[in-house]
């Protein structure tokens, strides 16, 4: 395969990871209602792992069915705290509540990627990393949130591991690119 792909996401971080690794990519967001899909999957008893995989596949398939022959990458990341999914915040207040839930605890960040062509998945991969957040005061959490822009906050699952968010954690196990939302090593093995 060649290194020209379509990314079914508006994520600047994912686009940047792909470009740093030699891929030329067009961006065509799938614009699906992720929360509705998650709620439906949770009602069916889906695990966080399956929810992440299904969302990545849904995004890639939706875009690829209208782009004859194009290689489309869909991706999704979820936070798994004790088997419960933590979604992206929709406000700073909600972000603070999420940080309080994660405070002092270990959680998993699960990232899935799906490659589709002509509306069909041709490959997928899911990876997870474990992150243990330090015990922090509300004041420290508020100070952290004050340093994060709205754009970053709403698109990075509350913390930016490549920036300010690194300081929130006492222990991180797993691939940094997985935590940032795109397990690039496996993508390269498949596409190049």
Question: What does this protein structure show overall?
Answer:
- There is one protein chain.
- The protein is α/β, with parallel strands linked by helices.
- The protein has one domain (4-191): Maf protein (Alpha-Beta Complex).
- Helices cover 39% and strands 27% of the residues.
- It is built from eight helices and seven strands, in the order βαβααββαββααβαα.
- It has helices at 12-20, 34-43, 48-64, 92-102, 138-146, 150-155, 176-179, 184-191; strands at 4-7, 24-27, 72-81, 84-86, 106-117, 120-133, 169-173.
- Strands 1, 2, 3, 4, 5, 6 and 7 form a seven-stranded mixed beta sheet that branches.
- The longest helix is centred in the N-terminal third of the chain and has 17 residues, at 48-64.
- The model has no long low-confidence stretch (mean pLDDT 92).
Main pleated-sheet profile? 7 strands, mixed
For the record, the CATH architecture stands as Alpha-Beta Complex
Total beta strands? 7
Query: What's the quaternary structure here?
Result: single chain
Name the helix and strand elements from N-terminus to C-terminus, one letter apiece.
EHEHHEEHEEHHEHH
Number of structural domains: 1
Alpha plus pi helix count:
8
* Class per helix and strand makeup: alpha/beta
The geometry reads as globular
**Which consecutive residue ranges, at least 5 long each, have pLDDT under 50?**
none
């Amino acid at each position: 395969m060649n290194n020209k792909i379509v990314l079914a996401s508006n994520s600047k971080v994912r686009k940047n990871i792909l470009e740093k690794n030699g891929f030329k990519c067009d961006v065509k967001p799938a614009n699906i209602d992720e929360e509705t899909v998650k709620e439906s999957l949770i009602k069916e008893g889906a695990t966080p792992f399956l929810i992440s995989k299904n969302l990545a596949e849904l995004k890639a398939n939706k875009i690829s069915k209208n782009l004859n022959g194009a290689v489309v990458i869909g991706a999704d990341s979820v936070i798994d705290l004790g088997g419960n999914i933590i979604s992206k915040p929709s406000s700073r207040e909600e972000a603070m509540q999420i940080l309080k839930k994660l405070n002092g605890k270990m959680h998993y960040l699960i990232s899935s990627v799906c490659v589709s062509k002509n509306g069909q998945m041709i490959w997928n991969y899911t990876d997870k990393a474990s992150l243990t957040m330090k015990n922090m005061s509300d004041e420290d959490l508020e100070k952290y949130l004050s340093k994060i822009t709205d754009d970053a906050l709403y698109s990075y699952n509350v913390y930016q591991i490549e920036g300010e968010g690194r300081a929130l954690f006492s222990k991180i196990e797993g691939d940094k690119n997985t935590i940032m939302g795109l397990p690039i090593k496996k993508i390269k093995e498949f596409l190049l």
